[in-house]
Amino acid sequence: MRLQAGESGGLWRWAKKKMSKGGRAGDGPTAREIGPLSPRGGEFVSSFGTDKDRACSGSSRCPLGHGSVGVDPYPGYVHGRCPSICKYGCQPKKRLGAGETPRQTLIREAVEYQELYHREAGSTPKVKEARIAQVLAEIQTKGTYDLTFDELQHGARVAWRNAPKCSNRGHWSELVLLDYRAAATNGEMFKCCLEYLETAIRTRATVPYIAAFRPARPGSLLGPRIWNGQLHKFCAYMTDEGRVMGDPAELAFTEFLETGLGWKAPKKRGEFDIQPLVLQMDPREPPEVFEIPPSYVEVVNIQHPENEGFQALGLKWVAIPFVSDIELSVGGITFTAAPFNGWFADTEIVRDLADEGRYNKLPAIAEAFGLDTKTNGSMWRDGAMYELCRAVFHSFGEAKVGLIDHHTLLQNFYEWYHTELATRGYSPGNWKWIISPMSSSTSPCYLGLNKMIEYTLKPAYTRAPGWVKYCGWLNKPLRGDRQVVNLFANWALIRVLGRMKGKVNALRPSLAILYASVSGNTRRYAHRMKQMLKDFMTVELVNMADFDPKRQGLESALAWVFMTSTYGCGALPQAAKPLLSWLSEKASQEKMHEKPFTVIGFGDTSYPRFCAAADSVMALVMQRGGRNIVPLAKADAISGEEDTFLTWVKQVVQWYMSNTKVSHTAIKELLPYAMDDDVIVLKAPHVPFRVVKWVQTADNAPEPVPRANMTAGRWKRHRAKVVDTTEVSGHGDTARSTNLIKLDISQFEFLKYSAGDYVQIFPRSKRSPELLEFANNLGIDDLDGVFDIECLDGSPPKFPVPIKFVTALTEHLDVHAKITAEVLQTLSCLSGLGDKSGGEDCLLLQELATDPEMAAKWLAESHARWIDLFECFPSLVGNLPIAACFHLLPIMRPRAYSVASSHRFLEGREVHCLVQRLHYTLPNARERSGLCSNYVGDTAIGDTVAFNLNNAPHFRLPINPEAPILMVGAGTGVAPFRGFIQERAYLKRYGPLGPAILIHGCRSRGELVFEQELNDGLDSGVLTDFYVAYSREFGLPKAHVQDIILANQGRLRVYLQNHAANVYLCGSVKLSIAVTEALQQVMDKPAFARMVEDGRYHEDVFSVDGNI
């Protein structure tokens, strides 16, 4: 059979006819089915192979549609001589493509991929045929073809799905493509790499990305090259003592950088110096070396949660793995430069720091923990590796960077792998790479996956030749040996891809549970809820990824229950997309009208926009006409997640009982906790400890009382001395007095912060007459007395003991905290004895405990605090045991203030915060003062302050220093911007800066803070413009920051139209609303919405109550 060169349509008709004999899409013509292009006039010659040939190459006779299957560059771990890869007998072909010309291979792989892509995209046969005809025409005309954006992104995702050595493939469908195929020079390639780094770092390792540069010409490696193994790698140097300083795995490449490319290493060399990038857009031109600016590098300092000596080791690691020594093959097109990132597994970093061929830090870690390294029998290596793993996991959590533990990783891979086999019928795998190097046998994967088969499926990732071969290939682009790339393990858990199926019992009303999970936690709670309810109701469990509104269980369900986690910076998980798409259609309004539903969100209050995805689901369903049956619940992973979940389930069950005829008795037997009566049953508090007097020594002197444990309680504490305190506005202890406090943190080498982060201050209550009276009413005669706690149930005490009463009541227990309704219910069980008010307060307490509405009103009007307790309820005097009071009193929580300094600008010596004294009058005419603000305002130089640092990754300067920024703040909201200005002064040493505008609002000139520093910033170019809005300055018209924005909208619009521009707002909720409305006028609403969606609009919004 012969086709002329221009007859691409005929070529497609012939190919379609051949493929139609086998059945399913995704099958393509094999190596033998499309013959070579003859040199005679461009004719196309074809030949046919046998059925055996087609079966061995995974051709059209296999209905699974996985295309051609090869062994090369595998096998890595294959059982049997001719292992089958699917139930239809397909086997990997040892020499797939042997005898083919590059154009034949291109045609075969292009057609196979188009079949696969259009099958999975759900395209019509007409669309598929037209596209394949277009591809073949391009190949006939120019010898190659261009993949569309969607084709390339899907190909990159499928390549991840096909990677045998990767244990995190469950997130393959979430990979995001950054298309840089238009880059033409080394400089443009470097700029794209920086943009890619900025995009990935901004998400804090919650989104996987791949950056694709232009592909190589088919049949050659004339494509872009990234010589580095990863975009972020540490250097290595040989010292005069013959010791390697840095990462030994990078010693050869570092020496090549210096001797071969002329790179100059830093004068002050360290173990963790970032390598420059070596980029080569055109292999016929020499490569170039590019230094990565510090702002494009994110490093996590490795700290141990308990061992302070561990910090002295100075360990750190890059936050995100940017793998760059891979090639991506999609549809016969090879992308020789395609760096990608996921997120680390803990064991990857542990091995990098522990392996003898790498940093070899286990001996030093063992010494820090006092382990015996002289004998193997002490298991010191195991102990040191365990502690290192704990430190890595703790440090990434503190830095708010994504990381996954190896147990969860294997557990979820195991589920995904079997789901994949059930769904597609095949999935390659390499046992040796999948299994974790730590605790291997504790996972079912250890034995359950040891018969996995490894083979090559296209699209595929393969290892690039590498810098050593590039050195010899500068003018000879040859193809070298490859091996499959090991993709880095994910931080997030893999969601279940299979559809949850079950029979519907028509005799019982049903409940539909729709869940969307990122880490797997929400999915587990959804399964748990089904197990709890399945015995007395029919439960339809649906992954939102598999949402189908016509599904029988959904249509017949009495109510829909939505359970969702939050993805990234407040977005819904990727699994929720099918549901969101349906809710945006008009057809959903009819189905959802008056449909009973409820929502619970799972999240973490340490992250911004807590459970924002649950808020979104609630709003969307309400817009479509749904009827909410149970209030929105938000479960906090840090505290009370279990209680919130059980309380919410109880409410759901109670609604179900009230709307069905199911026996309440039967439900009570199965779910007793959900069947409490409406009547509140008051119970005396269970106190898990008792207070005992401190035992003195023989000479009648008290034992030394230790200071507070640094890690006691929920919040970690450090202690630093005040090196300076300056009143920058106001006078004395007045309500408008504002102080700049500087703490010396030079002794904490492991403590690092970024401009925009928070410093948490632990306040101390004053030793006041009020406190003395409170203690006397508790029966504490001597505040300086020392006491101990004897735990009755083995639980640890709330604060370190032994301790003085005054220390416990001023530093660890918050006697100024507001009393809650739950506390009133508990205290009502203790009153009645020793009544000193004729029983009136005792009766009031009983009424408040049993009437929630009355309690809420009384608490709102009285503003009662714990220190006011005995004044409100005198009958409690002498009847509230010390242990019960200490058990009920809340722990003193830290107050967060924006960092007003830059760690790098101050070289890690200090951290600054700006605090305004708070004084206010209650509606009942009582005067109150802010506990923490006045404590900080009263500190003097030399005083010790308990503090901690907390990351705020949502409020950071752009990674690109040249990006325009607009800063808007009122009052003390200027604090983080002082840190930004200092950080920009530091960055100015390394290159140019983009424009920076500050708009600050205050009452009068007397409250304008940092005026001289801001003017210096203008003079040095660190600050471009500085505007002040005075709201109460005599002789000036009243103005707010939003007025300044609108008055200068023409100038601001020029900056904000830049696609890299970022806006920062720090202030009250009221300020946020006003500024948002002003910016929408300046930019127009769609442009502002895009800025928010891109993560370039940052808010640090606070309320007064938060820091009282």
UniProtKB/TrEMBL annotation:
Cofactor or coenzyme needed: FAD; FMN
Keyword Heme: yes
Name of a matching Pfam family: NO_synthase
Name under which the protein is recorded: nitric-oxide synthase (NADPH)
EC number of this enzyme: 1.14.13.39
Class of the enzyme per the UniProt entry, highest EC level: oxidoreductase
Alphabetized SUPFAM superfamilies for the sequence: Ferredoxin reductase-like, C-terminal NADP-linked domain (SSF52343), Flavoproteins (SSF52218), Nitric oxide (NO) synthase oxygenase domain (SSF56512), Riboflavin synthase domain-like (SSF63380)
Residue ranges occupied by any Flavodoxin-like domain in the UniProt entry: 511-653
Keyword Ribosomal protein among record annotations: no
UniProt KW keywords: Calmodulin-binding, FAD, Flavoprotein, FMN, Heme, Iron, Metal-binding, NADP, Oxidoreductase
Domain of life: Eukaryota
Gene3D superfamilies referenced in this protein's UniProt entry, alphabetically: 3.40.50.360, NADPH-cytochrome p450 Reductase, Chain A, domain 3 (1.20.990.10), Nitric Oxide Synthase, Chain A, domain 1 (3.90.340.10), Nitric Oxide Synthase, Chain A, domain 3 (3.90.1230.10), Nitric Oxide Synthase,Heme Domain,Chain A domain 2 (3.90.440.10), Nucleotide-binding domain of ferredoxin-NADP reductase (FNR) module (3.40.50.80), Translation factors (2.40.30.10)
